[in-house]
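Thread: Undecaprenyl-phosphate alpha-N-acetylglucosaminyl 1-phosphate transferase, structure

OP (GT): Posting the sequence first so everyone is looking at the same thing. Length is 349 residues per the record. Can we get the structure tokens written out before standup tomorrow? I want them in the notebook alongside the other entries.
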Amino acid sequence: MLAQNIWLWAQVGALAFFASLAVTGFMSIAGLGDASDGRSAHSGVVPTSGGLGIITSFGLALCGVALLFPSLKLGIGFAPVMALLFAVGFLGLVDDAMTLGPKLKFGVMLVICGAAVWSIGPPVTLPFLDRPIPLHPALGFGGAVLWIFVVMNAINFMDGANGLMGLTMTIANFALFGVGLISGSPTTLLLSALALMALLGFLPYNLRQEARVFSGDVGSLSIGFLFAVTILFLVAETSGRTFHLVGPILILPLLVDVLLTLVRRVRKRENILQAHNTHLYQRLIRSGRGHLAVSGFYALAALICANIVVIGAAKGWFDRIHVPLMLLGASVTAYILISRGLDSRRPDH
């Protein structure tokens, strides 16, 4: 169905792109932003209102889809989950404006994540050694809620270097669109395409030596939420196949940085709710690498993961955990080696 009426679909895509381009451009001129804090890789006032272009793009494109394709059949829970997407955007906007406390912010996020999983339905199987295994509904629900929560925060934490979040998530959504074509999941096709167009409209202002604007919480939380629920829709619409691990692999470079940095901070007995600037990408920038060089490194890693995902989706690699485990091992090893290299160059070494 999505392959029909190509011209109309192209108009929806153009609407998403130009809405993001125009609103993000306006916000970059308006100069609304936050003072850099303890987790920023920048100094001074950082423009963080670009996410309004992203969320506006989603809204207008979804209105276009509703008007042009009123009989389009999408995944169970699509409408309430899209309402939750805008709730996420509003939460991010409030946090950008007045900086909510982490406990309140995370609490609201968990409620939204739970409502999204309730609307879509939890996964009922999980990839294992030689075949998928049944998953208890409670475990499926809890795991899906944790998945959305982790992805939202990971994307948010990694939106700190010029072009890093936008470029890696553009690659991830492009590959996810390919998986949607392979799997025949209409909701995956639609949502990944909308995210892709919104990000392409945002990147011209962010992927620069001197970024004109960042997405802020309103953009990064929305992009993370949309990506995470798209994976859940993909799993729900392809019950005969196992695509659970497509999402984690596509954003593996970001997840490894966030989660291993968290482990590193726990080992140092730091307050993990306190703002910091010790993500690997931030340490690379402080060591003298430019923003674009660091973002390019993460984008290259994301591109490798994207190619593996598209090929693996076509060949059925993700019914088992062998390929994901090898990728995880390689990513963790790379993080450790780079991290130790940076530590060895510190003055106190």
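GT: Both are above now. Quick notes for whoever picks this up: The beta strands are 33-35, 45-47, 125-126, 133-134. The chain is about 70% helix and 5% strand.
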